[in-house]
């Protein structure tokens, strides 16, 4: 799999030859790399297949070429780049001409790309697009050390963008913390936690839309939650999608003790949010579970699941009222359904309950089977995107409350 390092080039002039001040960067393994460009030190450590260097028309491309140009051989190109950088006029054609010089010096495939200054939302979007265009596939590491300060925020966002939109694997976000230099050594700060926060926020948002417990599994696993406990959430999502709610609830209950002790890593920030979304299951009976999901799917516009689960909640309630079991259709659920309908026929229930029940059952049958409803008024409801959710809501309110 291709590995790429993305780095930014700014326009500092702290040193007339290197632009940036030379620093002794200390990596986690204790190795010290001395360079004015942190991205070059990081390249030596990560050994990527490709280096993508991003800068504006005013970045110090001229200082960069001083690091790699061979005296005499690349003199004309060096002078052209110096002149263009002085006038903030570096263009893509000039960078394409410089690229072989950089590749020859580093021994790795390189892409030198111009990016927008990012002064407004449109320009910032162009930066994301430039990064996505330069990184085609594989694993990506991003160096956020150099460049304009606001590019650090954009670079961090680009990591999430590449991961979610392009499906790439982000291996790390790095920052050479020159301001934290002590005893002549500059530490390397990993900003991967920012990406993990984005992942959690995304998972919570998507869960609120689709109810998939499995979205939390890789995040919890990355922070050390036992694999068998994490698998409970994956299984719960599967069982819930197949309407096997009893097994889904059992899996969630098996997982919940994990949330009774503090989580580690970024997961700890979201422990209360996750607990809030799962805690309902502790005291929920099957009928309440079915009703809750029916209302959830109704809000999401999944009318088939909403109608099926709403109707099953009615039958579960009738099973409970008659002390029947829940699981066996022929022995428990069908007799409970028939007994309830018999009661309605002899007037034992209010008209609103009767109307709600038959509307819910007719809508459930028509939606679940995908066939035209036998009753004209039901057919008219099913083809009307405004009436269908309203009638489903009204029917469930009448028969379940």
UniProtKB/TrEMBL annotation:
Domain of life: Bacteria
InterPro entries per record: CRISPR-assoc_prot_DxTHG_CS (IPR013383), CRISPR-assoc_prot_TM1812 (IPR011742)
Matches recorded under NCBIfam families: cas_TM1812, CRISPR_DxTHG
Name of the protein in question: CRISPR-associated protein, TM1812 family
């Amino acid at each position: 799999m291709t590995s790429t390092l993305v780095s930014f080039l700014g326009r500092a002039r702290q040193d007339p030859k290197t632009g940036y001040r030379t620093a002794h960067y200390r990596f986690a393994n204790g190795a010290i790399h001395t360079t004015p460009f942190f991205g070059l030190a990081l390249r030596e450590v990560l050994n990527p297949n490709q280096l993508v260097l991003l800068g504006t028309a005013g970045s110090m491309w001229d200082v960069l070429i001083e690091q790699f140009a061979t005296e005499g051989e690349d003199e004309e190109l060096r002078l052209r780049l110096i002149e263009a950088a002085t006038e903030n006029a570096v263009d893509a054609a000039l960078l394409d001409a410089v690229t072989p010089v950089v590749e020859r010096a580093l021994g790795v495939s390189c892409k030198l790309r111009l990016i927008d200054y990012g002064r407004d939302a449109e320009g910032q979007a162009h930066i994301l697009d430039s990064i996505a265009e330069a990184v085609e596939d594989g694993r990506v590491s991003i160096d956020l050390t150099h460049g304009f300060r606001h590019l650090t925020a954009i670079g961090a966002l680009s990591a999430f963008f590449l991961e979610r939109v392009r499906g790439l694997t982000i291996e790390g976000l790095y920052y050479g913390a020159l301001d934290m230099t002590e005893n002549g050594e500059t530490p390397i700060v990993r900003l991967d936690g920012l990406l993990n926060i984005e992942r959690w926020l995304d998972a919570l948002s998507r869960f609120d839309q689709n109810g998939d417990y499995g979205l939390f599994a890789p995040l919890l696993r990355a922070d050390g939650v036992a694999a068998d406990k994490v698998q409970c959430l994956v299984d719960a999502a599967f069982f819930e999608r197949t309407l096997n709610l009893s097994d889904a609830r059992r899996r969630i209950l098996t997982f919940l003790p994990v949330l009774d002790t503090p989580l580690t890593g970024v997961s700890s920030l979201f422990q209360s949010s996750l607990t809030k979304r799962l805690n309902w299951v502790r005291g929920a009976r099957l009928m309440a579970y079915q009703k809750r999901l029916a209302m959830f799917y109704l809000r999401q516009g999944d009318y088939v699941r909403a109608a099926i689960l709403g109707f099953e909640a009615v039958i579960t309630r009738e099973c409970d009222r008659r002390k029947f079991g829940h699981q066996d259709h022929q022995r428990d659920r069908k007799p409970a359904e028939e007994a309830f309908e018999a009661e309605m026929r002899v007037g034992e229930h209010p008209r609103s309950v009767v109307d709600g029940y038959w509307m819910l059952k007719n809508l459930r049958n028509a939606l679940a089977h995908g066939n035209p409803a036998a009753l004209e008024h039901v057919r008219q409801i099913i083809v009307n995107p405004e009436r269908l959710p309203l009638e489903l809501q009204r029917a469930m309110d009448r028969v379940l409350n």
